Amino acid sequence: MYVGNLSFDATEQDLRDLFGSHGEVTEVFIPTDRESGRPRGFAFVTMESADAMNNAIEALNGNEYQGRALVVNEAKPQSNTGGGFRGNGGGGYGGGGRRDNNGYGRNRR
Predict the structure, then answer these.
(1) In this structure, which topology does domain 2-73 adopt according to CATH?
(2) Which helix (H) or strand (E) is 28 found in, with range?
(3) Which of 31, 85, 95, 101 has its CA 20 to 30 A from that of 23?
């Protein structure tokens, strides 16, 4: 499940304790910023069953924890639509400069 609006001070053990009262926690992942190494303010928690996950979502979503109102919901797989790097010069990578009237090549002055 996705746990958003998480305090930057929350640890893996904090989340295991918090969610563990609703069922067995099998995994906790707290993403960190590549450059600073600091937590990014959200986490993913995996529980041993769908029932445990649903109980945790119902009990914890919107509740305050470490001074912040948690957002807890079922994590959805990332969609492959939009964003990210696109080949062939899309997405701001390569592709040349200004276009002429045909949409190809450089403008003629």
Answers:
(1) Alpha-Beta Plaits (3.30.70)
(2) strand 25-29
(3) 31
